[in-house]
Amino acid sequence: MAQIKVPVVRNILQANERLAAENRKRFDNAGIFVLNLMSSPGAGKTSLLEKTIEGLAGRIGIAVIEGDLQSSYDAERIQSKGVQAVQINTDGGCHLDGNMIQIALDSLDLSAVDLLIIENVGNLVCPAEFNLGEHDKIMILSVAEGDDKPLKYPLMFQICSVLLVNKIDLLPYTDCDMNKIRERARQLNANQKVFEISCRTGEGFAPWLSWIEEKVRGHKKLQAGKI
User: Fold this and answer.
1) Of residues 51 and 9, which shows the higher confidence score?
2) Do residues 134 and 65 make contact, with C-beta atoms less than 8 angstroms apart?
3) What does R_g of the chain's alpha carbons equal in angstroms?
4) By C-alpha distance, which of 46, 57, 63, 21 is closest to 166?
5) Domain boundaries, the chain
6) Which residues contact 19 (CB under 8 A, 6 or more apart)?
7) CATH of 23-204, one of 3.40.50.300, 3.30.428.10, 3.30.870.10, 3.40.605.10
8) How many CB atoms lie under 10 A from the CB of residue 103?
9) What is the 3-state secondary structure of 55-90?
10) Phi, psi dihedrals of residue 63, rounded to the nearest 5°
C-alpha cells in the first residue's frame, strides 16, 4: 500500500512557520527590515546585492545572509563591499528555512543593522514554500530566462511583493517580451511592483533603491510606535 506523505510535509511547514514567527519577532524588536531574495540560479541575486549595497552606502546599515548549496564565494563577494555577511551551506538542500536563519543570526551583530537581506538558494520552487520571518519576498527574473516563467512557476510570482526583471541590457539579443512578463505577473499578483533593471549597467536602480529606503523608514516608524 502506498504511503501518504502529505501530513509529514504539512508538519514540516507548520514547524517552520513557528520558527519564522520567532525570527520575525526578533527582527521587529531590533527594528530591522528583512527581505527574502529569491530567483533561479544565475538570475543575478548576488550582483543585485552588490549594486544595492553600493547604492545605499552611508544611508542604511545592511547585513546579508547568503544561502548556497556549497562554497562561501558569494558571502566573500558581499563582505568585500564592507558589510556583514554570513554563509549558510545547505549541502544539497534546495531552500533556506527558519531554523537556518535563527542559527545564522547568532553570527551577526544586529545593533547597527537597518536592513537584512537573505539571499535564498537559487530555485524557483522550494524557497517559495518556506517563510523565514521576512517582511517582504523579492524575486529576480533575468530576461535570458524568457517571459514564460510566470506560467511555469506561479506560486513564486504570487507571493513576491516585488519582481525585479534583470539584464534588460540583453533585451535586444533575446526573444523575451517585457509586456508579457508584466501582464502574466500581474495576473498572479495585481499588487506586485515591477522594476526593470540591469545590474551590469545600473539602469533602473534608482526606483528600486527608493523603494527599499521607504520600506526601511516605514518599518522603523512602525516599530517605534509600538514602544
Assistant:
1) 51
2) no
3) 17
4) 46
5) 23-204
6) 97, 98, 99, 101, 102, 133
7) 3.40.50.300
8) 11
9) HHCCCCCEEEEEEECCCCHHHHHHHCCCCEEEEEEC
10) -135, 155
61 exposure class (CB count in 10 Å sphere: 0-12, 13-18, 19+): middle
Cell numbers representing residue 58 in the block: 552611508
pLDDT, position 226: 75
> If you search the block for the grid coordinates 544586529, which residue do you land on?
110
- Tally of helices (H runs) and strands (E runs) in the chain: 8, 7
Q: If you search the block for the grid coordinates 512602525, which residue do you land on?
A: 222
Asked if 176 contacts 184 with a C-beta cutoff of 8 angstroms, the reply is no
Distance, in Å, from the CA atom of 139 to the CA atom of 82, rounded to the nearest integer, reads 24
Question: What is the phi/psi pair of residue 122, to 5°?
Answer: -65, 105
Cell numbers given for 79: 563582505
What is the identity of the amino acid at 199?
A: C
Residues 27 and 95: their CA atoms lie apart, in Å, by 20
* CA–CA distances in Å: residue 100 to residues 68, 90, 114, 182: 12, 9, 21, 33
- Residue 6, pLDDT > 60, answer no
Percent residues over pLDDT 70 in the chain: 95
pLDDT (0 to 100) of residue 70: 84
Strand partners, 141: 165
Is this structure's pTM higher than 0.90?
yes
Single-letter amino acid code for the residue at 170: L
